[in-house]
Design goal:
Distance between the termini: 22 Å
Shape: elongated
Strand content: 25-35%
Number of helices: 4
Strand order of the largest sheet: 1-4
Length: about 150
């Protein structure tokens, strides 16, 4: 689920307005390490889509769907990612209130599908996934698949 959420976050971007003058500890200067002054009323926007495809964070294959990137080196369990680099539901005190419900429902649905179907066959004549931006990223062609009963 994490790799799918990384490449196709439910919310592509988020905006916030600064309620008072403040200084962000990093993000300025040529290397991004200098502080940044933010004036009251400034609108700050974050692109989760861009963050989740950052080669600095995810490597040269950041655009590739590789679920194994979430496994520890020894294959025993899931590895932790750097704080604030994986935010499909936002983060902090305003994290999506439905995050746990959504993750539970998807996990349950995928588990039931694995029990009932032995294969998922692509029926899209265009094999490559073509993105379309809406509220989140979706398949431009829709989900053209066949579920093969077990």
């Amino acid at each position: 689920m994490n790799e799918t959420l990384r490449l196709n976050p439910p919310i592509g971007q988020m905006s916030r307005a600064a309620l008072r003058d403040t200084v962000l500890p990093t993000g300025g200067g040529d290397d991004g390490a200098a502080p940044v002054f933010v004036k009251k009323g400034t609108i700050l926007a974050t692109s989760f889509y861009a963050l989740h495809r950052s080669r600095d964070q995810w490597g040269e294959d950041a655009d590739d769907w590789r679920p194994e990137r979430w496994l520890k080196e020894d294959g025993d369990g899931l590895r932790k990612v750097a704080h604030w680099t994986f935010l499909p539901f936002g983060g902090g005190p305003r994290v999506c209130i439905g995050m746990q419900l959504a993750l539970t429902e998807v996990g349950y649905a995928v588990g039931r599908m694995v029990e009932r179907f032995r294969a998922v066959e692509c029926r899209d004549p265009v094999w490559e996934f073509l993105e379309e931006w809406k509220l989140s990223t979706v398949s431009r062609n829709g989900p053209k698949v066949k579920l093969v009963e077990a």
